[in-house]
Amino acid sequence: MCGIIGYIGRRDAIPVLIKGLEHLEYRGYDSAGIACLNSSTSSNFFIAKEKGKLSELKSQLTKNLPHMHVGIGHTRWATHGEPSKLNAHPHLGEKGRIALVHNGIVENYAELKDELKRKGHHFKSKTDTEVAAHLIEYYYHGDLREAIRKAVRRMRGFFAFVVISRDEPNRLFACKRSNPLVIGVSAHEHFVASDISALLPYTKKVIYLEDDELVELQENTVTITQLGNGRRIQKKVSEVNWNVDQAQKGGFKHFMLKEIHEQPRVLAETLKKRIVDHDIEFDTLDSKIERSLANAKKVFIVSCGTAYHAGMVARYMFEEYVRIPTEVHVSSEFRYADPIIDKGDIVVLITQSGETADTLAALREAKQKGALTLAIVNVVGSTIAREADAVIYTHAGPEIGVASTKAYLAQLVTVALFVIKLGLLRKKISRSVLSKLIDAVEKLPYQLSEVLKQEPDIRRAARKFFRKKNFLYLGRGYNFPTALEGALKLKEITYAHAHGYAAGEMKHGPIALIDSEQLVVCLAPHSKTYEKMISNIEEIHARRGIIISIATSKDQTVSRLSRLVFWIPKTLELFSPILTVVPLQLFAYYVAILNSRDVDQPRNLAKSVTVE
Ligand code: F6R
């Protein structure tokens, strides 16, 4: 979490940093700050910081701004030290010669701080980052590269740093361990940032920095060395195919709403890319990897949050269509559980950002245990995408809203297509079943557009119920994860309590909640467990609960029992979560708006969770 950026070149650095931070703000918004230098003269830093969102910092930076060519910027998700101006980055060393921004945690900061205090250093903030700035400055004797190398050798934890010194104003340094950094390359200027969205307004040419690499940027040069031994490294420049418009709101009030509406297009583009001549293709998998994946004895799916819900849906798909025993785990549990993984097992990591700390740790654990790892990732070139043995990209485009919507949908459809591919390779899916699956999947973009047409009805439903503080979401089978996802969307952006439950478990406890005030969202599309779900709805109805259902078009039974119904067109059960989740995304969105919540930047959250 936290977004960091650095710039060196001929432009005015302040607007470049601010624009970059706008694109990184989804990573944290507790405070923001910049530090800049004039590259031609040695002078003190120009520093501006503010508590709260970037808009607070921007409102400070209105007039008489100095013209600077080098700078670093930060948008914070607080770990050490409360959100405040004092704890806001950039932080300076003892004598103010070094300025630094940081994403990550220096785990041994307390002992380093004590040591530096004994040497006469004074600290202004409660952050681990200030300790890093002091330590680098402590080792600084005119060569910033050497100082960073020496200081980093003393640090434990994970980090990405961007560092400048007022004594060497024509050099900017950045290094990383675990947390992401991408270098933007352009004529007479260079950039470095936590992710490519901050670079897109200026360049599509990027270099991905690996762990324990240190980059020195000057106006016309990029020099990368190993942090440990200082050896020079040559790296390739890649071209990214995202464009800057994809990271704008495009006329919508919020990124989340825009991203919900983008979903039919995301589906259509995924299908167009993957379905070729009635077969399924993954450009990033060669036939050897595909065979190894298909021969797996067991599949572990590991992910967090919304991506975990996609993993739960994936488990039903794997077991039904590939007939491989499949387990699904939350990354933070998996990594510490000493999972029993054999050679020949595959571990599938699902992640939008490709940077989630627990998922990355789970990937490393799985590799160490000899599993074949496959990452299903949205952000091209992200750490998990690069470290996994194989990768499939979900190609949803940049997702900026903190609450995941289109990335979830892209995960669901990509996993479905991957499962079909493996089912074919393992001969568990016949050509006639394949035809049915492809016919059904190809209808999804249009069907999703039909679901979205109910937006005015969903807004009206939100208006009726937005004051409620407790919501229960129930589903079975493929739509049990949808119940969890619907509840997660609601709680993260509205702050109301929402609980997702397996409908069959209702009798074992949650039924005690039902009275005439309790709102229950029931997922009841046609499925193997449809009749069981109807029985659950009857039970809630008998206790006068308020039922909002998601059901297959024209279902009179559900209609009779429910206060409101949102409809999905008929589809195969495995694809139904792709349609049923969308009314729940919209419902959460409108409940949040009516409660005046900050939908794109809900409190305490950040888009990519790069700390444990
Ligand atoms: C919820 C949400 C989070 C993420 C989770 C994993 O709307 O976005 O729950 O799904 O933090 O993130 P990724 O997919 O980047 O690993």
Short description:
The protein is built from 19 helices and 27 strands.
Most strands sheet: 8 strands, antiparallel
Bound small molecules, deduplicated: fructose -6-phosphate
* Total domains: 3
CATH superfamily grouping of the largest domain: Aminohydrolase, N-terminal nucleophile (Ntn) domain
Mean pLDDT: 93
User: What's the architecture of the largest domain, going by CATH?
Assistant: 4-Layer Sandwich
Question: Could you list the spans in which at least 5 consecutive residues all have pLDDT below 50?
Answer: none
- Helix count, DSSP H or I runs of 4 or more residues: 19
Task: Provide the spatial order of strands within the biggest beta sheet.
Answer: 3-2-4-1-10-9-11-15
CATH topology of the largest domain: Glutamine Phosphoribosylpyrophosphate, subunit 1, domain 1
Share of residues in strands: 15-25%
How many strands? 27
Helical percent range?
25-40%
**Structural Rg:** 25 Å
Q: What is the overall silhouette?
A: globular
Task: Please describe what this structure looks like.
By secondary structure, the protein is an alpha/beta fold. It has three domains: 3-248, Aminohydrolase, N-terminal nucleophile (Ntn) domain (Glutamine Phosphoribosylpyrophosphate, subunit 1, domain 1), CATH 3.60.20; 257-442, Glucose-6-phosphate isomerase like protein, domain 1 (Rossmann fold, 3-Layer(aba) Sandwich); 452-594, 3-Layer(aba) Sandwich (Rossmann fold), CATH 3.40.50. The protein is built from 19 helices and 27 strands. An eight-stranded antiparallel sheet has the order 3-2-4-1-10-9-11-15, covered by helices on one side. Helix 17 links the parallel strand 25 and strand 26. Helix 3 packs across helix 4. It is globular. The mean pLDDT is 93. Residues 304-307, 351-353, 356, 359, 403-404, 488, 492, 608-609 line the site of fructose -6-phosphate.
